[in-house]
Amino acid sequence: MREPTLWIFHILAGIIILIFLGIHMGIMHLDTILTSLGVGYKNPLNWSSVLIRNKALFFTITYILLLGAALYHGFYGLRNILFELSLGKSAQKAVNWLLFFVGLFLFIYGGYAAIAAYVI
Amino acid sequence: MANGTISKPENRLGIVGWFYAGSFSFERYAYILHRITGLGILLYFLLHIFGSSARISGQSSWESLMHFLGKPIFVAGEYLVFIAFCFHAMNGIRLILGELGFSIGKPGRPVYPYRISLNRQRPLLVVFMIIAVIFILLGGYDFFIAGH
Description:
- The complex is a heterodimer of chains A (120) and B (148).
- Chain A is mainly α and 120 residues long.
- Chain A has a single domain (3-119), classed as Up-down Bundle (3 helical TM bundles of succinate and fumarate reductases), CATH 1.20.1300.
- Chain A is built from five helices and no strands.
- Chain B has a single domain (25-105, 112-145), classed as Fumarate reductase/succinate dehydrogenase, transmembrane subunit (3 helical TM bundles of succinate and fumarate reductases, Up-down Bundle).
- The longest helix of chain B is centred in the middle third of the chain and has 28 residues, at 72-99.
- The N and C termini of chain B lie far apart (59 Å).
């Protein structure tokens, strides 16, 4: 894929992360403030709260979307940093394939966990 | 130029060049911090994928992991990740706005006193950093004062 296309995907993934990780961070770490405003869950790490999110299709879908976007955004950023270190062509190729397979593995693993939590 | 192709300049400074390669502006330090926070968030995220998967092993697995991660050192570490996220997200919005041309300004004649794009970008950076600090403080209240 051409570099400008990869860069546009990086920005689009950033926007997706901003929305869904923003919601996630709000639910998990601003819970006291949000619940006082009538939004979110109190004690979001309690098993009962975790179960509510596990069984909500909205969270299952957005977790998978967030997982894919975050893996792409993070690994593309890491790839840019590594490529700036004047890597040779073969090293660049190795980095590309390594990040692709590690990213794919983590996406399958994390996606499986999100679906299994919904189904079980 | 060799054999009719433009060779990519060598990055002689390497990672040291992130921190100092001459006179750096406020935006340049935001750029460095964007990278460092990005790498930190990525590392945390990779661990988080495995940690949060404990929920499929049932209540006892989840609660024993949460008990382990409830130690002050992990709570402090998680707050650091929260700080990194607030900065990275707010600086990221600024960068996307710049990428889309919103903070660049229209081209004009170079009439003294010259207006440079920094005249628009600097206030934008300041505004987004203020928003980041507000979120960091709200998070700090939730993490350490309201109880977690």
